[in-house]
Amino acid sequence: MTTISGDSPSRMRTIVSVLLCLAAATHLPAASVGFTATGHDSRIDLVWDQPEPSDVDGWNVWRAGQAGGQFYRLNARPLGHTVCSDFLGENGQTFFYRITGVSGERDVSTSAVVSATSRAMTDDELLTSVQEATFRYFWHYAHPVSGLAREGSGTGDKVTTGGSGFGLMAILVGVERGFVSREAAASRLLQALTFLQEKAARYHGAWAHWLNGRTGRTIPFSPLDDGGDIVETSFLMQGLLATRQYFDRDNPVEKELRRRATELWREVEWNWYLGEPPGPQLFWHWSPTNGWKINHRIGGHFNECLITYLLALASPTHPIPSSCYTNGWIGPDPKSYVNGNSYFGIQQPVGWPMGGPLFFTHYSFLGFDPRPWSDPFCNYFENNRAIARIHHAYALSNPGRHTGYGANVWGLTASRGPEGYKASEPRQDTGTVAPTAALSSMPYTPRESMAALKHYYHALGRRLWGDFGFKDAFNLDKDWFNGGYLAIDQGPIVVMIENHRTGLCWRLFMANEEMPQALKRAGWTKQD
């Protein structure tokens, strides 16, 4: 027994309190929480499991420079997720890590120590590494009840319908790349599909833009937008149909996945969204309280909604007439749809001047493979390639003299910038760049996109990289970097990089027999 003499009663109470806290903390071996450290190019990634049951409501991450050395905490506030990416900016660096589980203001568990060394990677390895980190947004940051994708960083119970569809496909990529087991992915996705079918509010089969991930109730996107969103539903359905094709094994979980995906697909009343009485164009929104008041018709210009018309034509139960493609999507005046002009010497077949925001070329094409198909106006792979090249050329020209623009910083799209969420494009450019713009364009501009990825990673990574890959946006004019993420920006990075590498999500989605049939109904032709 140690005797401490000459100490005041208050000091004695403090020492006793510290000893009690230390005694209360449970030492957890690294294996008990699945705690691993893995060296990547310029960084070390830490991943661990959430123990069940557990009184842990957050995590602190500690680093030391040598075995048995002094540990320093990396995070300012306890993490609410079970992954940490320690971006070092150098290779050949070895560090030692431990994590402590936090309940309230005290540590309640401490892991054993693990270590790893950062290492140089080939371009191919770096692509996989970026995909893996970005995939974790949909795996480690998914809503714990619904399994769906949270809208963005810090959005709590708010989950996103379209972003969840992108996340479904990102998880399929995760299985193929070995980031997660097939069995774990099937279980997680069955959790999500069960929630979508049994708990989530639906409006003639369509989901709202936002849902409460705990209750399934609609979270209004705006005062009038408190019902079905047929565009977000189409983004989700793209992921559901790819999931249905991927999980093709004869076991109870995968059979249940296929059954639920098929039922959800068949229950969407696409033709309802033609309005009352039905017209040639789809309406974006309908709610039981506000009806068609938003009056947002879809079509007449090339944007992110092409997939909505294709799925509505493909429906085996509630299809829209084939004439709606021409009269609705293209619109009453084809001249408004067609472009045909050249920008920076690059001809653009259809779309807004200089293409509009680049998500127009991403969201509808995560599952839909445009390469072998053409409608009467263009081949959309070539159209999307032209738009991406125009964005790259615009950055090289840099008419607004924005800081950093050039061959390695390019591409404008929707993101959370310093003025809030905005859709940037060459005609509306405030200097805010989102990594998803160039990275998700990789099928169209592989060389230019890879150059941007390496620059964002190596030159800007200390401020642009985080636990779930590249953060949402940055503005070098203002020396500003977003601290968080958006699901609809993270998902396309994983999926479109994979479509560039293997065509996985294109192949899965197009394997649904309804899709070629729908394209033919719309007057598309396939190149042999």
Structure description:
36% of the residues lie in helices and 18% in strands. The protein is of the alpha+beta class and 528 residues long. The strands form 11 sheets. Strands 1, 4, 5, 7, 8 and 9 form a 6-stranded mixed sheet that branches. A 3-stranded antiparallel sheet has the order 2-3-6, covered by helices on one side. Strands 10-13-14 form a 3-stranded antiparallel sheet. A hairpin with a 7-residue loop joins strand 4 and strand 5 (72-73).
Record keyword descriptors for this entry.
29 strands; single chain; six-stranded mixed β-sheet; 18% strand; globular; 16 helices; 36% helix; three-stranded antiparallel β-sheet; 528 residues; alpha+beta; disordered N terminus
Gist of the model:
With 528 residues, the chain is of the alpha+beta class.
List the helices and strands and how they pair.
Blueprint: H1 9-24, E1 26-28, E2 36-40, E3 43-47, E4 58-64, E5 72-73, E6 83-87, E7 94-103, E8 106-111, E9 114-117, H2 123-140, E10 158-160, H3 161-176, H4 182-198, E11 202-203, E12 206-207, E13 210-212, E14 218-219, E15 228-229, H5 230-246, H6 252-267, E16 282-283, E17 285-286, E18 297-298, H7 306-314, H8 323-330, H9 334-337, E19 342-343, E20 346-347, E21 373-374, H10 380-397, E22 414-417, E23 420-423, E24 432-433, H11 435-439, H12 446-458, H13 461-464, E25 465-466, E26 469-470, E27 474-475, E28 480-481, H14 487-501, H15 504-510, H16 514-521, E29 525-526
Parallel strand pairs: 1-8
Antiparallel strand pairs: 2-3, 3-6, 4-5, 4-7, 7-8, 7-9, 10-13, 11-12, 13-14, 15-17, 16-18, 19-20, 21-29, 22-23, 24-27, 25-26, 27-28
